[in-house]
Amino acid sequence: MEQADLLVCHAAQLATLAGHSQRPKRGPELGDIGIIEDGAVAVRGDTIIAVGATSEVLSRVGAGPKTRVLEAGGRLVLPGLVDPHTHLVFAGSREYELEMKIRGAGYLEILARGGGILDTVRATRAASRQDLIRTATKYLDQMLDQGTTTAEAKSGYGLSLAEELKMLDAARELDREHPVDLVSTFMGAHAVPPEYRDRPEQFVALVIDEMLPTVANRQLADFCDVFCEEGVFSVDQSRRILQAAKNLGFRLKIHADEIISLGGAELAVELGATSADHLMAVSDQGIRRLAEADTVAVLLPATTFCLMGDRYAPARRLIAAGAAVALASDFNPGSCPVNSLQIVMGIACRQLKMTPAEAISAATINAAHAIGRAGAVGSLEVGKQADLVIFDAPNYQYLMYRFGANLAETVIKSGRVVKGGTQQ
Predict the structure, then answer these.
(1) Which of these, 268, 341, 330, 331, lies nearest to 300 by C-alpha position?
(2) Which of 68, 238, 310, 323 could be a cystine partner for 228, CB 3.0 to 4.6 Å?
(3) What CA dihedral angle connects 255, 256, 260 and 261, to 10 degrees?
(4) How do residues 164-189 score in pLDDT, each as one tens digit?
(5) What is the pLDDT of residues 65-119, one digit of tens each?
(6) Which long-range contacts (C-beta less than 8 Å, at least 24 apart) are formed by 111-119?
(7) Spacing of C-alpha 6 from chain mean position
């Protein structure tokens, strides 16, 4: 009988999210989260070795004198949450924008005034690499405390070769040192910097000819992303940048149809992007194309909430069409200073009209597909990384019902208890 190093037993509900490591959940599948009553998970090292009802797991896995046993009675156990879209590494903050938004200023208007992304660019350029690491560590600690165990982190506040490399170097060190696993995305095409304001095509050439090859040679990012939006990067510019990235071996993401319907979702499908993100203004054709493709539709409802907008991504239409839907925070210093996926799921239920089960699927296994990590994380299955969270909730519906509270009681990352953990 195999000995476990860690046993989590007697969960009131254990949601496995099993069976979708090869392909994301779609349509009605999103509502089936694999609930096991009185569930248990056994871990050896950093790997799950058994999942099932507590009696079944204990009949197959031994508990020796060194086995740590966590009693989850009356609680909910989920896979570690996965955040597939964040702008984690930055300096400064933009709390002053809140009053501007209250007075009616829109996102693109703030950007046109030299605020928004460009304000953070100035602060990030002035910060040292260690400054960026110190600030991001604080935010990562908060994310882990709330149950996020894997996340994506974009560059894009440097907008020059040296500054983008500084951000990506910081993200690499964070991935090495912090319990949260990070997947890095190069986003040099996040905005046109002030020094290229009247020469946007020259900046596009800089991204293609200098930034992308250097980042690829140094293996600093898995993905490349572009902000395809009116007044930022056109569909044609985005296509050229992303195609160049694809030729260098990057996987692709795209900020698509966030404010204006430009055809970003269609471009994502055309290029075989791993995900198309935002989609508040996605077209009917874009929805159809996403439903037919492997590209994951990553929805960011906390962004609309923080921008005080009235247009949320059409989650119900995307799900009904058969698109693979995921949720993410879009954590950043301006448009969405929210880094809790618990809050994101709560907003998704209330504003996107997603059910609690759909929201959980979208923030675990489908989110893992959106960053190419579904083979390792996003579900509780034998052979997968032992990332799981014990929530102070009697069932999965309660987690969404208690919107705004941090119910993550115990967090286990790679088989190690990193928060809480009352031993029995």
Answers:
(1) 330
(2) 238
(3) 170
(4) 999 999 999 999 999 999 999 999 99
(5) 899 999 999 999 999 999 999 999 999 998 888 888 888 887 777 777 767 888 8
(6) 111/191, 111/231, 111/232, 112/231, 114/194, 115/334, 116/191, 116/334, 116/335, 117/156, 117/157, 117/190, 117/191, 117/334, 118/191, 118/193, 118/194, 119/92, 119/94, 119/334
(7) 27
φ, ψ dihedrals at 363, nearest 5°? -105, 5
**For the segment 332-385, what is each residue's pLDDT rounded down to a tens digit?**
998 899 999 999 999 999 999 999 999 999 999 999 999 999 999 999 999 999
Contact 379, 17 (CB under 8 A): yes
Q: Which residues pair with 148 in a beta bridge?
A: 81
Cα–Cα distance between 340 and 404 in angstroms, integer? Answer: 9
Element holding 409 (H helix, E strand): strand 408-413
Burial 143-157 (b: 16+ CB within 10 A, else e): bbbbbbbbbbbbbbb
Residue 76's DSSP bridge partners are 13, 391
Cβ density class 276-314: b for 16+ within 10 Å, e for less: bbbbbbbbeebbbbbbebebbbbbbbbbbbbbeeeebbb
Q: Is 12 helix (H, G, I), strand (E, B) or coil?
A: strand
Q: The tokens of 127 are what?
A: 């910060």
Q: Tokens representing 100?
A: 């501007």
d(CA 350, CA 344): 10
Beta-bridge partner residues of 52: 40
Distance, in Å, from the CA atom of 157 to the CA atom of 167, rounded to the nearest integer, reads 8
pLDDT at residue 422 in the model: 59
Residue with tokens 């293996």: 219
